[in-house]
Amino acid sequence: MLEADLTLAAMAERLAKSADYRVLRRLVHRETSTRITGQSSKTAILLDVETTGLDQQKDEIIELGMVKFDYLPDGRIAGLRDVFSSFNEPSEPIPSDVIALTGITNEMVAGHRIDETMVSDFADDAVIVIAHNAGFDRKFAERYWPVFQRKAWGCSATEIEWRKHGFEGSRLGYLLNDAGFFHQAHRAVDDCHALLEILALELPTAGAPALGILLEQARKKTMRVWAEQSPFELKDTLKPRGYRWSDGSDGRSRSWYVDVDESKLDDEIAFLKSEIYLREVEPRLQILTAFDRFSVRA
Q1: Which of 6, 140, 146, 203 is 20 to 30 A from 249 in CA distance terms?
Q2: Which residue in 65, 70, 64 sits closest to 32, CA to CA?
Q3: Where are the domains of the chain?
Q4: Sign (positive/negative) of CA torsion 238, 244, 246, 247?
């Protein structure tokens, strides 16, 4: 290490010990390693896409990033296995607001195509795919690459109660800053590397790594409760409780719905009976697991 680097490191260490300062360090990507043998490790993938917009049926992927890693039964990360990063040229020019947000220009993606075979080979041995907004990333990924339709998925943004564990919020940048790091945001593979370090954090409130908490939640069943034909004027009662509107454009019912843990199903039905329908009612239910949760097929 150069003398200037040593000086900066010493200054940072001194500031970090003071109650008056917080020090953020640039996130350094882990080195890849060979798979651990002799231990009951499994393989997972962190995935992130950058797109031309938010419409999961019409907008296009312009960048795919994936980080493959091994983890142990308790959720500890055993090592980084491989990294995938590729651009994709969309059929229309990238909107200016997307260029401003991501830094990805039309010149950068020109002539690039993401190879489906390479994506499938990369993802083949993963038992779970994790995204920081799986409700967004999974729908795009499944549209482009069928391999992701048969994978279990987890969402690191919604399947960990970050505030409960002392964090300011669930946005990736907030989590990384709270952990003492910064990175190049809104670039797919960089976001994946950042998420790997977040999931590696030991959460004192849980006595386990963040990844362990996420995996435990992902294994649980979720019940989707449809409040079909609920009175329109009660929408402001449903929304604060987490209900979302399905406009029917994707083949689902035109109705309000909410996803709840299986253990909270009775409470949700009781709420609908007493606050929405004012009568005995048996709402339509769907059972969701990690294999269909966050998918457009759900």
Answers
A1: 146
A2: 70
A3: 18-218, 222-288
A4: positive
Q: Give the rounded distance of the alpha carbon of 169 from its chain centre.
A: 14
Q: Which two tokens stand for residue 262?
A: 């299986």
Cα separations in angstroms, 86 against 17, 61, 203: 41, 10, 33
Pairwise CA distance, residues 160 & 208, whole Å: 12
Token pair 């010493």 in the structure block, residue: 10
- What was the pLDDT predicted at 265? 96
Radius of gyration of the chain (CA): 21
d(Cα 188, Cα 133) in Å, to the nearest integer?
Answer: 12
Tokens for 129?
A: 């795919």
Query: Dihedral through CA 293, CA 289, CA 72, CA 29, nearest 10?
Result: 0
- Protein fold of 18-218: Nucleotidyltransferase; domain 5 (3.30.420)
Reduce the DSSP state of residue 141 to 3 states and report it: helix
The reported pTM is: 0.88
> Mean pLDDT across the chain, nearest whole number?
91
DSSP calls for 198-252: HHH-EETTTTEEHHHHHHHHHTS-EEEEEETT--GGGHHHHGGGT-EEEESTTSS
What is the helix (H) or strand (E) element at residue 135, kind and residue range?
A: helix 134-144
Cα dihedral: 31, 208, 72, 76 (round 10):
10
Q: What span, in angstroms and rounded, lies between the C-alpha atoms of 5 and 151? A: 44
Of the candidates 89, 78, 88, the one whose C-alpha atom is nearest the C-alpha of residue 34 is: 78
Q: Identify the bridge partners of residue 7 per DSSP, sorted by sequence position.
A: none
Residue 4 has pLDDT above 70, yes or no: no
The pair of three-digit structure tokens given for residue 1, joined into one six-digit string: 């290490």
Predicted pLDDT of residue 12: 67
How many other β-carbons are positioned within 10 Å of the β-carbon of residue 88?
18
Please identify which residue in the block is written with the tokens 């919604």: 158
Residue length of the chain: 298
